[in-house]
Amino acid sequence: MTDSYRILVTGATGVVGASLLAQLENAAKSGAKVDGKPIEAIGATRSEKKKAALAANGSKAVILDLDNPDSSSGALHGVDAVFLATSYTASMCEQSKFFADVCVDVGVKHFVHLGVLIPPREAKLYVPLIAWHELAELYIKTTFPDSYTFLHAGEFLDNCLSYNGRSRIRDGTISWYSVPDRPTLWIAGADIAAVAATALLNPAHHRGKTYRLGTQVATISEACKIFSDAVGKEIRHEMMDGTQLYEETEREDPKDVGRLGYIKFIAREANRRRKDYEHRVRSGTTLSSDESRLKPFPDVEQVLGRKTMGLREFAEANKDAFLERS
Length: 326
Ligand SMILES: NC(=O)c1ccc[n+]([C@@H]2O[C@H](COP(=O)([O-])OP(=O)(O)OC[C@H]3O[C@@H](n4cnc5c(N)ncnc54)[C@H](OP(=O)(O)O)[C@@H]3O)[C@@H](O)[C@H]2O)c1
Fold this sequence. Notes:
This is NAD(P)-binding protein. It holds the Pfam family NmrA. InterPro entries: Ergot_Alk_Oxidoreductase (IPR051604), NAD(P)-bd_dom_sf (IPR036291), NmrA-like (IPR008030). Residues 6-248 form the NmrA-like domain. By secondary structure, this protein is of the alpha/beta class. Helix 1 crosses helix 6, helix 4 packs parallel to helix 5 and helix 9 (242-252) runs antiparallel to helix 10. It contains 14 helices and 16 strands. It has two domains: 5-153, NAD(P)-binding Rossmann-like Domain (Rossmann fold), CATH 3.40.50.720; 155-188 and 214-290 and 311-326, UDP-galactose 4-epimerase, domain 1 (Alpha-Beta Complex). The protein has helices spanning 15-29, 48-56, 69-75, 92-106, 128-143, 189-201, 203-206, 220-231, 242-252, 257-283, 289-292, 299-304, 311-317, 319-324, and strands at residues 5-9, 33-34, 37-45, 60-63, 81-84, 110-116, 148-153, 155-156, 162-163, 166-167, 169-170, 173-176, 184-187, 209-213, 216-218, 236-239. The strands form four sheets. Strands 1, 2, 3, 4, 5, 6, 7 and 14 form an eight-stranded mixed sheet that branches. A three-stranded mixed sheet has the order 8-13-15. Strands 11-12-16 form a three-stranded mixed sheet, covered by helices on one side. It is globular.
């Protein structure tokens, strides 16, 4: 038993986890309580160096490697609630299972998981990453039937600045792995974190719920127009070649077979979409209505009770990053 309500944030050095940790720390400073106890947020990372950086920033940090369940036992000691974000590989299946098992052992009361938007079965979209998330969540739901909260996110706006461990914008050009006319359902990482924080701070309202997080639909061409307008400088995009994306990932870490497996799929899909797009341009045709049918979900505004961060607000909030690299 501890005097505080401890919330462990995995992926605390990543896009969503870092923002979530900061938001929970602010809530703690403002005196937030759960179950009558003041909250205590703890960030987890695999790396001693990143742990030291978190601590230097005033955060509480622990070492946790999801590939080593023994490290979870130490990190989860006395923890009441968790936020689980995994990386982009099939390992997320066993990582999530073993992590959930240890969470049960230590008596975790609320399990928040960051997943992806799941297309309906009829869409016949066979995306490995989505399948891994679905399988991981089936186990989490079985293990925490009344105390899970699932966050199914669309495309992070943050990917426009950095993705696959790399800056994606240089000289005002976003190198993008999809095509100019295909709509995307966007969400800002900070808003995903805000939904996670709201759920973690009010578990009774959010246990057993799945939220679909996508707040604005736009193609990358439309997005660039909005970004340009917001930062006062032209932001363009170039279609990234799938093979180039794969080679870039391989150069970064040729031994990271899990990530390479995922990027291989993305690369193939990027090349297929590019061919389709070039065909559409040559033949003067457009996307089918099925392919272009995407709608934002109201969940984020409903959970947060405020307007969400759209593309314009994202660009304004990250103006320096857009301009620095322009
Ligand atoms: N990007 C998108 O558009 C999008 C859309 C929907 C869903 N998602 C999902 O979001 C998740 C990624 O979230 P993110 O973008 O916030 O993260 P991110 O910025 O890609 O960073 C990955 C985080 O995961 C941690 N991590 C990686 N392997 C780990 C391991 N073995 N043990 C413990 N921690 C590990 C890293 O921590 P350390 O390096 O510090 O250990 C890092 O903090 C993925 O599951 C992805 O499928 C992404």
